[in-house]
Specification:
The protein is an alpha+beta fold. The protein has four helices and six strands; from the N terminus they run E-H-H-H-H-E-E-E-E-E. Strands 1, 2, 3, 4, 5 and 6 form a six-stranded antiparallel β-sheet that branches. Helix content is 22%, strand content 31%. The relative contact order is 0.23. The chain has a single domain (11-139), classed as Hotdog Thioesterase (Thiol Ester Dehydrase, Chain A, Roll).
Amino acid sequence: MSLPPLRTLYFEDLNVGMSETLTKTVNSDDVIGFAEVSGERNPIHLSEHFAARTPFRTRIAHGLYTASLISAVLGTHLPGPGAIYLSQTLNFKAPVRIGDVLDVTVTVAELTERGRKARLTCEAKVGDTVVLEGEAVVKVPGRGDPGGVD
């Protein structure tokens, strides 16, 4: 994954319906690295031998690894630097396997002027299969906020 360039959108720049998609091919090094960082070392993620005996028949990525790509979109592009995560719901629908190409899309669903909050729908797909869906709420800086990001 090449990281998209940082883009800062202020609350005033956002509109309902705006969306951004990040495409990422899941590789073994990503899954191993996530296990190292998170401490979540379930062998279904790390051992092909173990995973072969599961209903998935092969290693799968951590669900929260997939969810972390939502954070990547929120923190780098929509709305971008300065956005503060307030909440996130996650519904895991299908496994993500090593080698799968993930498309993670975040869409502005609602804007609340008070507190400058944005509610965003979040979806991750492998091909036409939804593997994760949920909603995020973030606080978005305004153009005139002290200490805002420029």
